[in-house]
Amino acid sequence: MSAQAFSCDSHVARIERDGFTIIEDFLDAETLDQVRAGLAAHFGAHRGRNAFEGFTTERVYTLVGRGKVFERIAEDERLLALIGHFLQPNFLLSAAQAIRIDPGEAAQALHFDDSFYRVARPRPALSVSMITAIDDFTEENGSTVICPGSHKLGADVVRETLPRQPVVTKAGSCIVFLGTLFHGGGANRSNAARLAITYQYCEGWLRQQENFFLAIPKEIARTMSPRIQELLGYSIWPPFMGMVTAYHPMRVFDDDFVPPVADEPRS
User: Fold this and answer.
1) Domain 8-235, CATH among 2.30.29.30, 3.90.1150.10, 2.60.120.620, 3.10.560.10
2) Average pLDDT over residues 9-33
3) The model's pTM
């Protein structure tokens, strides 16, 4: 990870004003290499099924469960500190993906990431997202397009009239933005793929996009740091949301834990 000085307050102020900020040099060259190496074996399994996913875009889901480098990124202290200004304590990781936009891909429709939480706009964000450039982002290769200030707009927003700004930035930079900010992937008019990773975090009382309990075997989740375990949902939203038959969910990692239902006769 990069050791560049980080001012959380200045990033918070920019997010409040524009709906997004950019942490430059979020990942250093060594970590970028680790990310690329960790992803190399996984591409080729999932191309987009519709225009929104992108017919020439590849995705790797459940990224946080695919290597220690992806865990470290998910719990980066700078990232979590920034998110903690906009979400309540005990927020969760909602999704973790790699996205590779291949040459010829069309621009993605503008959207906001927490639109599936059916709460009317304008409203505070219920999620915060990050997109980290693993390749340089250029206007030609499908850089993320954002609509500054759109996080403040209501339900009557007309997408076609929104001001659009391509995020041109170097590999290792991280865009952090509110779940209410309109954005989309750009068209890739270059002759090379554009790779990024994205993590989305949500309020602790909301359902996550990815069901990490089913996607990540307990044997792997047990090896993760307590902070990652909490982000996946092995945690409690006070007073008791997330319990496992009256136990704290961390209890399932104990060697002697047996789900009470397993010991009971079924009628």
Assistant:
1) 2.60.120.620
2) 97
3) 0.94
